[in-house]
Amino acid sequence: MINLTDWANVATIVTGASALTAVIVWGQKQWNEQKQRRATTRRRTWNDGYIPMEEVSSWYVRLAKDDAGSTARIVLEVVDSNGNDLDEQMAYTLRLFVQRDGMLSQVPTPEQFAFLKELQKARRARPGALPVRR
I need a labelling partner for 23 at 20 to 30 A (CA). Which of 9, 62, 75, 103 fits? Predict the structure, then answer.
């Protein structure tokens, strides 16, 4: 016959098992989120040797007005590749990138662009392999 002490022991074991399961599930979720963040960061950084060409965006711009008094504010006009006409669609896209990323970056130099093309060729030749930047 089971007495109250035995039921208390069973309850303690069940509670401990539930807590252990919760810790394992939480830990696994944290681990997966960390792996995903690392993968995203690696995919977007030069140091790991590969940036997908479709993620390199550039816009032709010119200063809308040169305000010598304030150096922290810059007004740009997004123009076409000839530098003549304003390009509203490209301006909209640039605005979306700035809102999403909160930053702008430099367009790759010709050497960097050639490097990206080489990496793209290597990636097509060996899917899954990430070449290292030299």
Answer: 9
